[in-house]
Structure formats: structure tokens, C-alpha cells
């Protein structure tokens, strides 16, 4: 209990407060600093022994010399985990591992892009390396647990490192003092000092303040000191970006909740009604077609061979099933085009495949053999054929379907069907004259002439025509976490823009005992700051040479 | 109209070339006496020409749009040419921030080389297949390319930094390896030049060879515009203009190179490498210096800190744009076209890798203090990844994005 309690305090309490309860470090200027503080919170004087002799305090400036949780606690298991994930070094290593893994996964195509059985495909296509690729689980890498784990660890790292830094940074930037110790100023990466008489100092300080203000700095003055600052929002950029990334990753995780994410595929022929998988909806394909570019539409000078498809379209109707009556009632009607999916209450149907001219039904004609007189025709729907379907043919014939093999084959001399697709339809019909109790049996197999088999028959059944329709492949998608994911993306972008298109620049100036100290800091682009500061100083008659023009 | 379009392209090319020459002359004419004003004047002329070139390229894009009815970024030629445009834009922006004249002497030739490279690919305007008919596609591709253009400027500045460093400190072990890899990088750039040169040469000569071979059991015909050093696996010559007495390919591509054009691509790579090496040999013979030493005088007076910052700044400007274009807009488009915002196809994956790489760069720089040499090498590495994405992934490991 005790330890959980202290962890909670450590998490919830702002860093300083917890530490104040334990021990403080007092600076010369009289300020009490929390343990772990490197630069005095008030005057900026280096507190750490090791720093006092250093030329520059550049490194410590990143978090303004503030104590961070990861530096203050290092013993308990929780702290170790915390420190692990708060380390940018670890973050970089995670990023690089992810990067390399992602690259390795593209050496051969992933399983979802291949056709065929992965177990044999890789070794057949790519030999020993292909087999290795498959055996190591790289062939379906991006949905593997370990790839997910890598992303999850980056996510945790993002959360922890942001929490570890943003609060101390926020406090430090909120409570900046104008008067900094000369030590702090001259240990900045950009620093300058110059002897100035007391009589001159006012003019110089004012001049510097004015010219910095002209460069859009926000200038504060306190006694003989100046603090000029601009672009502070740049410091929040990375954190806002990271928060965006966290939201994004969170959105991705949300998709694992059942019902939040749907990824299915259906083939549907013209005229067909099919259930949309995993939903209560049904969809009908009223018409499907491909349109080619008209020769006139292809501008002169274009070098094309053969026809080019302009669009694929499926006119679809979405139905909902009434739970009581079981009746389908239409709820939405739309043409689906590539890039223009059908959208209804979060469900999307995408035009994804198109197969023209799929066999849908065949028309058969019945002939009386002796007289060669045609008795009539009938049409068999290959996809929905009722058992014992009876067709009325001509005036006095009835044809009954006894057996139907959509994909006919002979196995051990017995007729079987290899699939439910009508690739090679075969039938056994019974042809019966009206009023008779007994009919004759007749075999019909696509593409085969069976006349010799049924010599005694009175009637022959032959193919009179086939009817084809177009078939559309529709992707069925639902993604309820999409708003979260895109929200994360937008936040992340805002953070990036803040972080990169602004820079946090500060200039400290202080006159003390006949000496003018000037120091400057930026979170990036030092060269530009040098140039800017040099121009500003020159206007204030301070001979500051930082770069050659 | 088509003629106008072609002329606009030539004009763009000539202007970029002129701009490069101006920048190089501006600095190299200034060896002994340091005449800052003169350099600045030449720099202004150079950037003026570059801007004019960019305007011509805009006109070229507009004409092509009028002809083809869509924004021209949908095949290898169009995309690579557009990438040149974004590199020039990136350069112009950075130029006006830092006024670095020498940068122009590196970036503009890079744009010239890439534009020549692009022009080798088929330049016909093609009608758009349905999957590509979406506004988001253009928004996505153009934004991503803008980011990559900025990265390319970062690459050029990184190279300049490296040339300066290596030129200064050649001794010692690190000096040796840095020099070696830098020279290698420059030779690879020469190979791009070689690729364009050799293709234009044989194109002008009207060289042709044709082979029949099998792809997955289907007969296939491959046409070569370069003399076949490597022919298709088990291919038969249908027709082959003799080349230096050669009437047969020297060898066959290995069996695992299966694609319809795979052997021809291998052949182009061999030619590019050879031409690049020959060019390199000639340069060394004539100048009796390494490429690094030839270029060193251009950068030796520059402040390394400035180059380091220019390289970083370009990448920092490019990163948000690239994120927006190559990831966010790409997701929106993929969602519209395929109903999933991310599918791990090779092209997407490599955009993700590029992004991760540059984010590692930024973290290393910000938090681990990787400035200067390391940072410059990372800038080079990032551009290599972009080129891998453009060339290897497009032409070899083709995914959904694979342009005709
Ligand atoms: C693995 C988890 C990550 C951790 C622990 C992490 C940590 C950090 C830290 C500590 C900073 C510096 C903040 C500062 O000093 O003010 C930073 C900056 C940044 N991070 Fe991350 N980060 C992570 C992942 C990412 C990822 C995946 C990206 C991808 C875009 C990213 C993009 C950035 C950017 C753009 C900056 C600003 C760099 C600059 O200003 O130059 N971070 N990150």
C-alpha cells in the first residue's frame, strides 16, 4: 500500500512539491531549489559542482536545468521502467528497430498481396530466402504481435517521455526571472561581455531593448537587466506532436474492439441480392459496368494502345431486414465508383473488382428427335436453382431438374461437383409429357455432346444460348475509430508546425559592476540567432561579432 | 500543343542548367580576392534564372494538364520531373533565408541531373486509370514531393558540409572512411548522369533490340533501347542491332529476375554503373584529383556551422510538409480509394520508413547532439531512402502505386 501511495504522489504531485518535502538546495540568491535542479530556478546560476567549471551550460538549457522525475528517482522497479521509457535514446532505438523491420518486410510481397498458398508460394517463387522469409513470420509481418509490440512500446515511450518533461518545462518557462546571474549568461552558447561605464549603460540597454523589440521580441526589463524572448510556442510543438501521435496510436488500438472495424469482401452479380457480412444489411447489384475512354476523349498526342478504362460503376441498393417480418426494405441507393464508395451510417462499400460477362443462366431447347421439331425452350438460372425445379416447356412438356452439378467432374466414375461455381454445369433432367406418370432421363453437360448416351430418348436437350452478367467485387468497410485517428493526425500536424516554423529565442542582458553581459539561447538554428542578435546589437552600438556577414 | 509542352520542358531544363552554371561561376571566379558583392550579384542572377525556370516548369505542368486532363504526377517521368520542381522551390525558399550562393552551385545541378534522369522514361501523356482519379491523389503526391524537395536541399547542404570537412581533414582513420564514402556518394550521383547520357546517346542513334522469352509460362517480348549486356533469362533474339560486333547478349539475367521488364532494367543498371565509372575515370584522368578535391574549393570558405544549419533547416521545413503529404493526405486518399487508410503496400511502407528515419534524425540532433558530421551523413542517408523509394520500389518491388 505504502509504495503504491508514494508512486501516486510521485505521479500526481508536481515534481518540485514532492521534493520540497524531502530536501532542498539553496542558491546564493536565496532561492530554494528542489533536489536534482541543475540551474537555479530563479537566477539561473549553475548549482551542480561539475557545471561550475564548464564552459557552457548548453546541454542543461533544454529543460531549463529543472529536475525531472526520471532523474530524481532511480530505485524502485516502477522508476526503472519509467526511466527506460522516458529516455530519448531508447525512443530512437525503438524507432530504428521499427524502421529496419518495416524495410525488411518489403523484400518480398506480403501475404495479402500474393495469390496462392503462402506455405508453398514463397519457397516456389523465391527459393530458400523466400522460405526463410515465410518461416520467420516476415510474410505477414505488419499484423504480427511483435510489430504491434514495437508500436505499442513507442506509444508508451511517447506518453512517459512527455509526462516526464512537459511539466517541469512548463513551470520553468512560466516563471522566468529577468535578472539572471552573470554566470548563467556567460555560460550560454552565445555570449559576449563588454566593459561599459555606468554613465553609458542606460543608453546601451535601452538601445538593445528597442532593437530587439523591432525584431519582434517580447522585451522585459528589470533594473539593469533585460530578457527578450520570442517564439516560445516552439517549445510546446514536440509535445503537442507527441500527444497527437498518442491519440493516433490509441485510435489504432480501438479498432481491436469487436464491431469497431470491419474488413470484408463480396462478389455480387447483376441482379443478385447478398447479405453484407457481419452486418444487418443486404445489398443488391442493379447494374454493373465498365466504361471505356471514348476515342474522342483521348487527346491527340496521347500514345495509347487498346482501350483504356475510364470508370467502373456498380448501381447498388442497400436493404435493411425487418426483424419481425423478415422483409427487406431499401434504405439507400447509390452508384458506387472507384474513389466514390457507398456510404451509409458508417458502413462503406467500395468498388474494388470487376469481372465482365460472367455466366449467369443458360437457355436450353428441347427437340423431338424423330421429327426434328422444336418443342420449346427454358432458361436455367445457374446460381439459384431450386431443388426439383420444374420448367414448363412448349405446350405439353415438363422438364424437372433431378441433379445439378455446377462444377462437374467424374470421380471414380461417379459424378461430383468440385465447387459451387458454375464452371462446368451438368444436369440430369427428366422430360415428361403432360399427363404421363413416367418421363425420360436426360444428361446435359456443358461442352459435351451426349447424344450417343441417350440414343433411345425421344427428346434431345441442347444449348440454345447463354446469358452473361457483370460481377462486381465490393469491399465492405467500417472503421469507427477513424475520427480518433484523424483527430490525432491533425493535432500532430499542429504540433509539428509549431515546433518547426517557430524557434524559441531568448536574449539576456545584464549590466553589473561596470560590465555588460549578453547571452542568448535558442532551441534550434543558432546561426540565424547569431545573425539576428548581431544586427540588433549593432543598432544599439554594441560591437558584437558573432558571424561574418 | 504537344510541341509547346515539349518546348517548355526544354526551356526549363536549359534554364536550370544556366542557373547552375551561373552559381558555379559566381563562386569559382572568386578565387583570390574576396569580392563579396560580386558573389552576391552572381547569386542574384542565378536565383533569378532558377525562378524563371520554375515558372517555365509551371507552364509546362499547366500545358500537360490541358492535354492529359489530369495533374502530371502519375508516372515515373511526371513524378520525377515534379520532384525537380519541388527541389528548386525548396532551394529558392532556403536561398532567401540564408542567401547562400554556394548552395545553388550544388542544388541546381542536382535538379538538372534529376530532370535529365526523368526524361529518359516514357514521356507520353496517359489517360488516368480509375484508381488514380481523385483530387486527394494530387494533393497527396504534390505535398509529399514538396517535402522531399526540401529534404533534397538538406541532402545537398549535407554533402557540402561533408566536402568541406573531408577536404580539410583528410588524415586519420575517420578521415579516410568519410572520404571514401563521400567519394562513393558522388560517384553514385555520376551514375545518374551516366544513365541519362547513355540513354540519350543510344536513343539518338535509334538503337533497338528485341527478345522473346517466357514470363510465368506466358510468352513475352522485351524491347531494349540500350545494347543488351544482360539479356532476358532463356530469351531468344528477335532482332538486335549489332553493337561493337556483339550480336548476342553477353550473359543472361538470373532466373529469379522474373518481371516482364526485369532484364531490361538490370541492363540499364549495368550501363549506368559502367558509364558512371567511365565518367569518373575520365574526370580523374583529366583533373588528377578526386571529386571531393575538385569540389572542395567551392565550399572551403564557408562556415561549417552555416552549412550544418542550412541542412537541418531544410529538413525541418520539409518534415511537417512531408508528414502532411506522405502520411496524412496519403491516408485520406487511401481511405477514399481502397477503404483503408493504411495497407502496408511497399510504397506506403517506404514512406513510413522515410518518415521514421527523419524523425530519428531530428531526435538524434535535438536530444543527442548529433550535429555536424553525423548530422550531415544522416541527411545524405535520408535522401538515399527517398531515392530507393522512387527507383527501387517503383521499378522493382511494385505495389499498388506502381506507375505504368
Ligand atoms: C518513441 C517515443 C518518442 C519519444 C520518447 C520522443 C521524445 C522526444 C523528445 C524528448 C523530444 C524533445 C523535446 C524537447 O527537447 O523539447 C522530441 C522531439 C521531437 N519528437 Fe519525439 N519522441 C518519440 C517519438 C516520436 C516520433 C515517433 C516522432 C515522429 C514524428 C517524433 C517526433 C518528434 C519531433 C519532430 C520532435 C522535435 C524535434 C525538433 O524540434 O527538432 N517523436 N521527441
Automatic annotation (TrEMBL), chain A:
Compartments reported by the entry: Membrane
InterPro entries associated with the record: Cyt_c_bgen_Ccs1/CcsB/ResB, ResB-like_domain
One annotated GO biological process: cytochrome complex assembly
Keyword list, A-Z: Cytochrome c-type biogenesis, Membrane, Transmembrane, Transmembrane helix
Residue intervals of the ResB-like domain: 88-436, 450-533
Gene Ontology annotations for the cellular component aspect, listed alphabetically: membrane
Keyword Membrane: yes
Organism in which the protein naturally occurs: Lihuaxuella thermophila
Record field: transmembrane: 90-108, 145-163, 239-257, 482-502
Mode of membrane association: Multi-pass membrane protein
Name of the protein this chain belongs to: Cytochrome c biogenesis protein
UniProtKB/TrEMBL annotation, chain B:
GO biological process, one term: cytochrome complex assembly
Main location, first listed in the record: membrane
Keywords, in A-Z order: Cytochrome c-type biogenesis, Membrane, Transmembrane, Transmembrane helix
GO CC, one annotated term: plasma membrane
Matches recorded under Pfam families: Cytochrom_C_asm (PF01578)
Domain of life per record: Bacteria
Membrane topology: Multi-pass membrane protein
Residue ranges annotated for the Cytochrome c assembly protein domain, each copy included: 74-197, 305-401
GO MF term list: heme binding
Listed InterPro entries: Cyt_c_assembly (IPR002541), Cyt_c_biogenesis_CcsA/CcmC (IPR045062)
Regions that span the bilayer: 12-30, 42-67, 79-98, 103-121, 136-163, 175-198, 269-287, 310-334, 349-364, 376-397
Localization annotation: Membrane
Record-given protein name: Cytochrome c-type biogenesis protein CcsB
